[in-house]
């Protein structure tokens, strides 16, 4: 049997934690909309929120192998939590974000107790059923959520007591971008740790992991709760920056869209969800401008093309086509 040399896992993790020049360039490029496209800052904030949502799904799907078709449950729960707090008179964005994250995390932990007991096709049905159940519950509780009319009366205070959310989206994009960066740093540190290695092992073979001392179910519960927190933060950001909350945040369509975003970018690559969000949101904006009724047709063509020619997503395709240059970057 071949065993790893002493200290090899630690050296591997240390190499993964190092920042590459391409990574730094990528994050610097997120500041360009402030200068080059100020009229698209609202779209940029939506991209940042969608990227955060896709990042949360990537933690469970790309790294732990947990298939979910109901991830919008946590996105919508965080959105409604932040919206209701504001409606009831507390419009501070930061504290509202924290409360929404805690609420979504609690919901994620409770549901993870069931999720951790199943794998593969059973997970698809369970997560889908849970998402539909929560969406229907929100629709039925119209006295609380506003039902099909949406939640009314969401008003946010100034960010940090200094910056008011403007119509042009400067504050909204800066706020969403800072939260995205913080969430990404957390996810990056998490993935490049022994816990992250255990998640990869669970993805490959969950039955064998207990033999090396890794409790698969406990790890799944932890990462699922963390993913729910991130999804809830993304939903809260949407509610705070748009000052609207609707049933659409809990819909199956929202879960399907974020799955498409992750597939486009490449699952299990950390940057895949963010790159996929950029491509998907920009394509949707352009296609809907050309043909407002049939823009989903072109999104379908884009998705088919990516799956056919880049089966591992955009980042996976780049890594396959330019392996040496990609490794150096």
Reconstruct the topology from this structure.
Blueprint: H1 8-17, H2 21-29, H3 32-36, H4 41-63, H5 72-87, H6 93-115, H7 121-140, H8 142-145, H9 170-191, H10 194-204, H11 216-242, H12 252-265, H13 272-290, H14 295-309, H15 313-321, H16 323-328
Helix pairs in contact: 4-9, 4-11, 4-12, 4-13, 5-6, 5-11, 6-11, 10-11, 12-13, 12-15, 13-14
Description:
The chain has 329 residues and is mainly alpha-helical. The chain has one domain: ABC transporter involved in vitamin B12 uptake, BtuC (Orthogonal Bundle), CATH 1.10.3470. Helix content is 71%, strand content 0%. The chain is built from 16 helices and no strands. Helix 4 crosses helix 12, helix 4 crosses helix 13 and helix 10 packs across helix 11. The longest helix is centred in the last third of the chain and has 27 residues. It is globular and about 55 Å long.
């Amino acid at each position: 049997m071949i065993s790893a040399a002493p200290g090899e896992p630690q050296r591997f993790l240390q190499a993964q934690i190092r920042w590459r020049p391409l990574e730094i360039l990528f994050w610097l490029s997120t500041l360009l909309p402030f200068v080059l496209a100020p009229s698209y800052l609202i779209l940029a904030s939506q991209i940042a929120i969608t990227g955060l949502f896709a990042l949360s799904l990537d933690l469970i799907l790309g790294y732990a192998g947990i298939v979910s078709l109901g991830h919008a449950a946590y996105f919508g729960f965080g959105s409604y939590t932040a919206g209701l707090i504001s409606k009831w008179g507390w419009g501070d964005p930061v504290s509202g974000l924290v409360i929404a994250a805690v609420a979504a995390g609690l919901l994620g932990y409770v549901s993870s107790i069931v999720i951790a007991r199943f794998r593969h096709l059973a997970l698809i049905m369970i997560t889908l059923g849970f998402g539909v159940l929560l969406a229907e519950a929100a629709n039925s509780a119209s006295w609380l959520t506003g039902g099909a009319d949406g939640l009314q009366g969401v008003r946010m205070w100034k960010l940090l007591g200094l910056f008011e959310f403007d119509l042009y989206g400067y504050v909204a994009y800066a706020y969403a971008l800072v939260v995205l960066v913080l969430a990404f740093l957390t996810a990056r540190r998490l993935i490049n740790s022994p816990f992250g290695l255990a998640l990869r092992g669970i993805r490959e073979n969950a039955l064998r992991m207990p033999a090396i001392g890794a409790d698969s179910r406990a790890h799944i519960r932890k990462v699922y709760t963390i993913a729910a927190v991130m999804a809830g933060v993304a939903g809260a950001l949407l509610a705070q920056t748009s000052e609207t909350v609707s049933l659409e945040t809990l819909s199956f369509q929202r879960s399907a869209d974020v799955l498409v975003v992750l597939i486009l970018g490449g699952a299990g690559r950390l940057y895949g969800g963010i790159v996929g969000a950029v491509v998907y949101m920009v394509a949707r904006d352009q296609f809907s401008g050309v043909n407002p009724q049939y823009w989903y047709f072109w999104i379908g063509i884009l998705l088919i093309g990516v799956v056919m020619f880049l089966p591992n997503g955009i980042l996976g395709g780049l890594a396959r086509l330019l392996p040496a240059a990609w490794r150096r970057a």
